[in-house]
Amino acid sequence: MPHVTLSGEGLTIAQTYAIAKHYDPVELDREAAMNMAASRRMVVRYLDEERTVYGVTTGFGRFSEVVIPADKRHTLQVNLLRSHSAGVGTPFSETVVRGMMALRANALAKGYSGVRPVVVEQLVNLLNKNVVPVIPSQGSVGASGDLAPLAHLALVLIGEGMATYQGQVLPGAKALERAGLTPLVLEAKEGLALINGTQAMGAMGVLAVHEATGLADWADAAAALSIDVLRGIPLAFHPAVARVRPHPGQALVQQHLRDLLHGSQLTTSPGQLRVQDAYSLRTTPQVHGAAREGLAHIADVVTAELNSATDNPLLFADEDMVISAGNFHGEPLALVLDYLGIVAAEWASISERRIERMVNPTLSGLPAFLTTHGGLHSGLMLAQYTAASLVSENKVWAHPSSVDSIPTSANQEDHVSMGTTSARKSLTIVGNLRYVLAIELLAGAQAADLIGPTLLAPATRKVYEWVRTMVPTLEDDRSPAADIEVVAAAMLSEPGQQVLNELGLGRGIIVS
Question: Is 112 a catalytic residue?
Answer without folding.
Answer: no
